[in-house]
Amino acid sequence: MNIVLLGAPGAGKGTQAQKLVADYQLAHISTGDLLRAAVKAQSELGVAAKGYMDAGKLVPDSLVVDLVLERLEQDDCKNHGFILDGFPRNTKQAEVLDSALADKNVALDAALLVDVASEVIVNRLSSRRTCRECGYTGTAADETCPRCSGEMYQRDDDKPETIQNRLNVYQENTAPLVDYYDARGLLKKVDGDRPVDDVYADVKALFGL
Ligand code: AMP
Question: I need a labelling partner for 117 at 20 to 30 A (CA). Which of 49, 166, 173, 176 fits?
């Protein structure tokens, strides 16, 4: 099963992806995680991407696209399929993805929109905390990571001054992908403003899992 996840930052895409990956062994391709790893490693890509990320802007397509295309070549994407989380983020990226998958004779099964109103998103992102070690997403109530006991921190781009910027970027660049995938008959939608396990139950029902 090959899925693209859509939804505003903080909608819960990563959380739903982590559950699907654990239960169905899909490869999880999160461009945000890949870019944060590059920043941490201070690689050439990381150094180039950091300023955009800290400001809540999209990293240029030229830096992100190759990262994803290389990741899609890895064996784990061929076993049970993949979940793209945070990619595509604009129409250009969606077109590049379509043509790369067509070249490999691979089809997308769905674009899943995790739908949450923007007022809810602002509250969620402000209290979001992330594990420095394993990337687990928790809240300000998690003093250490419930999964690996690692240190929880607030991402620079989850600070209040950057959140509105990220939402504007989402509305302008990424929200049009909902229509893009709807027009191709691939759109599926869940109400993400509910407890994680309720959302996940709907996700599984939508995919007949
Ligand atoms: P995320 O963890 O998905 O919220 O991504 C964090 C940040 O990484 C975003 O605010 C962007 O700066 C950058 N980023 C992640 N995915 C992409 C993408 N597909 N295109 C451009 N920038 C991206």
Answer: 49
> Which one of 30, 31, 64 would you pick to mutate in the ligand 1 pocket, going by the greatest count of ligand atoms within 8 A of its CB?
31
pTM: 0.90
Distance of CA 132 to CAs 34, 59, 106, 149, 155, Å?
A: 13, 21, 34, 10, 9
pLDDT tens for the chain, 209 residues: list them: 999 999 999 999 999 999 999 999 999 999 999 999 999 999 999 999 999 999 899 999 999 999 999 999 999 998 889 999 999 999 999 999 999 999 999 999 999 999 999 889 988 899 999 999 999 999 999 999 999 999 999 998 898 888 989 999 999 999 999 999 999 999 999 999 999 999 999 999 999 99
H helical segments located in 8-159:
13-24, 31-40, 44-54, 61-72, 76-79, 91-104, 118-127
> Which residues approach ligand 1 with their CB closer than 6 A?
9, 31-32, 35, 52-53, 56-59, 64, 86-87, 89, 93, 157, 166
